[in-house]
């Protein structure tokens, strides 16, 4: 990917029908492409990203393209429950921000935490400017459905669509960070640039509003 065309490349990745992405630290099968290895090898997200980050920071355009492609499902997974109908825009904005900020990333090993911060902030920003909102995809509701204390089923997850649509973008963001990403209150507060007290308040209200909307 030509750096000058980063927006177009990121948009193409965001628009593709990617499913639920990988979480930080999860094992994921990735193809070691273009670096002399033809076979599929199951590696952790960081192990797959590390050589690409190093090469991309050194100006390797192909490595940058591969890195953005690797990150797209994870970014999509974070943005979709927050930005709703504008997921593609949020993913594209997040990937562009990653492209622009990669040379300034101080610790490459913090890549996924850094990308998570960018993705959630961009998703909230895009959601706020959106003129309308629609439900999220069924596959992205599994973690949030756990708030109900009920085992997830396709039918149950489908009904979560309308409930999430009634929550604010800030409340959807805190639910994603706590229920899907498993961040503690301190980490969530640092990511959202708010105090722990604000995190607790938002989380309480988000969970309460979710449950109230559910029983209506």
What does this structure look like?
Keywords: Sigma factor, Transcription, Transcription regulation. InterPro entries: RNA_pol_sigma-70-like (IPR039425), RNA_pol_sigma-70_dom (IPR014284), RNA_pol_sigma70_r2 (IPR007627), RNA_pol_sigma70_r4_t2 (IPR013249), RNA_pol_sigma_r2 (IPR013325), RNA_pol_sigma_r3/r4-like (IPR013324), WH-like_DNA-bd_sf (IPR036388). Residues 159-207 form the RNA polymerase sigma factor 70 region 4 type domain. This is Sigma-70 family RNA polymerase sigma factor. The structure is a single chain. This protein has a two-stranded antiparallel ribbon with strand order 1-2. The protein has 216 residues and is mainly alpha-helical. The protein has helices spanning 6-15, 45-57, 61-83, 87-101, 111-129, 142-145, 154-165, 169-180, 185-192, 196-215, and strands spanning 28-31, 40-43. Helix 2 packs across helix 3, helix 3 (61-83) crosses helix 8 (169-180) and helix 9 (185-192) packs across helix 10 (196-215). It is built from 10 helices and 2 strands; from the N terminus they run H-E-E-H-H-H-H-H-H-H-H-H. Helix content is 63%, strand content 4%.
Q: What keyword list fits this structure?
A:
216 residues, mainly alpha, two-stranded antiparallel ribbon, 10 helices, 2 strands, 63% helix, 4% strand, elongated
Q: TL;DR?
A:
This is Sigma-70 family RNA polymerase sigma factor. Belongs to the sigma-70 factor family. ECF subfamily. This protein has 216 residues and is mainly alpha-helical.
């Amino acid at each position: 990917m030509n750096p000058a065309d980063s927006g177009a490349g990121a948009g193409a990745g965001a628009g593709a029908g990617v499913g639920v992405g990988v979480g930080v630290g999860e094992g994921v099968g990735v193809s070691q492409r273009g670096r002399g290895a033809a076979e599929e090898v199951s590696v952790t997200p960081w192990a797959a990203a590390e050589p690409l980050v190093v090469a991309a920071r050194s100006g390797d355009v192909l490595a940058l393209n591969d890195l953005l492609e690797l990150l797209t499902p994870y970014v999509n997974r974070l943005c979709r429950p927050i930005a709703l109908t504008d997921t593609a825009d949020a993913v594209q904005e997040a990937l562009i921000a990653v492209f622009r900020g990669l040379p300034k990333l101080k610790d490459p090993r913090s890549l996924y935490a850094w990308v998570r911060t960018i993705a959630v902030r961009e998703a909230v920003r895009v959601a706020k400017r959106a003129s309308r909102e629609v439900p999220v995809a069924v596959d992205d509701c599994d973690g949030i459905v756990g708030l109900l204390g009920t085992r997830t089923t396709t039918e149950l997850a489908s009904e979560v669509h309308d409930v999430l649509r009634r929550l604010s973008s800030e409340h959807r963001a805190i639910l994603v960070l706590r229920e899907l990403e498993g961040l503690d209150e301190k980490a969530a507060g640092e990511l959202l640039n708010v105090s722990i007290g604000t995190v607790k308040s938002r989380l309480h209200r988000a969970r309460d509003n979710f449950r109230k909307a559910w029983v209506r």
